[in-house]
Amino acid sequence: MINKVVKNVDAALEGITDNMTLLVGGFGLCGIPENCIAGLVKKGVKGLTCISNNAGVDDFGLGLLLQTKQIKKMVSSYVGENAEFERQMLSGELEVELIPQGTLATRCLMAGLGIPFFPTPAGVGTEVAIGKEVKSITYNGETKDYLIEKAFEADFSIVKAWKGDTAGNLIFRSTARNFNEPMAMAGKITIAEVEELVEVGNLNPDHIHVPGIYVNRIFKGEQYEKRIEQITVRKRG
Questions:
Q1: In this prediction, what percent of the chain has a pLDDT beyond 90?
Q2: pLDDT tens profile 200-229
Q3: Which residues does residue 217 pair with via DSSP β-bridges, in sequence order?
Q4: In a 3-state reduction of DSSP, which class is residue 142?
Q5: Distance (Å, rounded) from C-alpha 75 to C-alpha 40?
Q6: Segments of the chain assigned to CATH 3.40.1080.10
Q7: Digit-coded pLDDT (tens) for 170-191
Q8: Are 84 and 67 in contact (CB under 8 A)?
Q9: CATH homologous superfamily of domain 9-101+151-220?
Q10: Helix, strand, coil shares, percent, the chain, to 5
Q11: How far apart are CA 78 and CA 236, in angstroms?
Q12: Rounded-to-integer distance, Cα 108 and Cα 119, Å
């Protein structure tokens, strides 16, 4: 029987060294691999390139790695409400590549599918197109310019799921599915932390979002904070 369980976060992060490229799941503060991020802070690796929708907030998510200046470059679609991210970007301490959110998701997906590049109209004629190949393509009788975007190349993917089994099959809960699913498929080595870890056969096959073939290491995480980035409530009347 295939068993991809590792005993703890330290074992899961084995092999991650300075100057590597990491795909990190999450959207805002939802579906964040909290244990792995804390483990990377403790591990002290530096010069990282992190590909993620955003960089958390100042004291949570990837914001923790920004505080310790372990990230050299962020590839994101949204700066968000992280003041330290903004400060490092404006001061030139942090290299930042901002790309459209759909392009970010598709570059993950293409990496998982083994497709090296793809055309997209998003970003044509903007700063996003600087340094990239532009091709004129006729599609559905219409000819227009497309950017040629490359699939991501990442050393590790780090994701967080709601449930997983010992073979690495993963189930995400609601919007925490976000970038975790395509990123789980995209890295050379995929690490999954889960809230609940069960034996093979305990997950309904129809509910599995990522099959275990994409996952190399899995472990049960602890002490999930699950923050809400913005709480908006109606005033009592």
A1: 86
A2: 999 999 999 999 999 999 999 998 888 877
A3: 191
A4: strand
A5: 18
A6: 9-101+151-220
A7: 999 999 999 999 999 999 999 9
A8: yes
A9: Glutaconate Coenzyme A-transferase (3.40.1080.10)
A10: 25, 30, 45
A11: 33
A12: 14
